[in-house]
Write a structure and sequence with these properties.
- By secondary structure, this protein is an alpha/beta fold.
- It is 28% helix and 23% strand.
- It is built from seven helices and twelve strands.
- A hairpin with a 2-residue loop joins β8 and β9.
- The radius of gyration is 16 Å and the shape is globular.
- The two termini are 16 Å apart.
């Protein structure tokens, strides 16, 4: 399993994460880009964004899907990396589950596929979506909010400490309460966790936070390997 969990950054914020991504992918295969967390009318702009974001990644080309059904029909093993972008996390997870693409992504992971998830695309790999309820509106009325749970029961929040002081304080108080029942890792935009089998590599230059048992713990993240989450 090789999954990059990015706190939601882009450009200069993700240079080191993208360098690490370039080290582990099959360069002979294209990238599959999933923008489904966004609204469909933005997909053309999303495609321009991903081309710029991955311009230094050594891949033949980027293929973008425009619907969950299209995604579910793909042979994901044809791709060297799957990039799942940000937007509304509830919409994204709902689309993946209704279409059957959720199970296909699981199979891809189990066959040593590489995934890069940013913001919503990272949050869905946690235990569930409880941590992002203050950030995203559940307009799709998704009831089954369990994610891929690749961090053994830990939920994920992105963009933490990149918003206003007031919004971060609200998130902090909410996560302190949520963490009485589950562990949460809160990532700033400049931090990416690379889950590489049993190891977790921290890539970034800002602190990240773990909420557990109603308490908050701050961790420095000067890029390190074999970290414990």
């Amino acid at each position: 399993m090789k999954v990059f969990l990015c706190g939601g950054g882009a450009g200069i914020q993700t240079i080191e994460a993208n360098k690490r991504l370039n080290e582990v992918i099959d360069h002979s295969k294209p990238c599959l880009y999933i923008p489904l967390a966004m609204e469909q009318e933005t997909y053309a702009d999303c495609y321009e964004w991903i081309k710029e974001e991955l311009k230094n990644i050594d891949i033949p080309y980027i293929e973008m899907v425009k619907s969950a059904d299209e995604l579910a029909a793909k042979n994901m093993n044809d791709f060297g990396v799957i990039f799942i972008g940000g937007g509304n996390t509830f919409k994204l997870l709902s689309d993946l589950k209704i279409s059957g693409a959720f199970e296909k992504i699981k199979e891809y992971l189990n066959s040593e596929g590489v995934i890069f998830g940013g913001s919503a695309g990272a949050i869905i790999f946690g235990k569930d979506l409880e941590a992002c309820r203050l950030d995203d509106i559940n307009e799709v009325n998704l009831n089954e909010i369990n994610g891929f749970d690749i961090l053994d029961g830990t939920s994920i929040l992105c963009h933490y400490t990149n918003r206003t002081v007031e919004k971060d304080e609200k998130s902090k108080q909410y996560l302190l309460e949520v963490s009485k029942h589950r562990k949460v890792v809160a990532l700033p935009e400049e931090v990416t966790l690379f889950v590489n089998g049993e190891d977790i590599e921290v890539i970034g230059n800002r602190p990240y936070y773990i909420f557990e048992n109603g308490l908050i713990y701050r961790f420095p993240s000067h890029s390190s390997r074999n970290s414990e989450m």
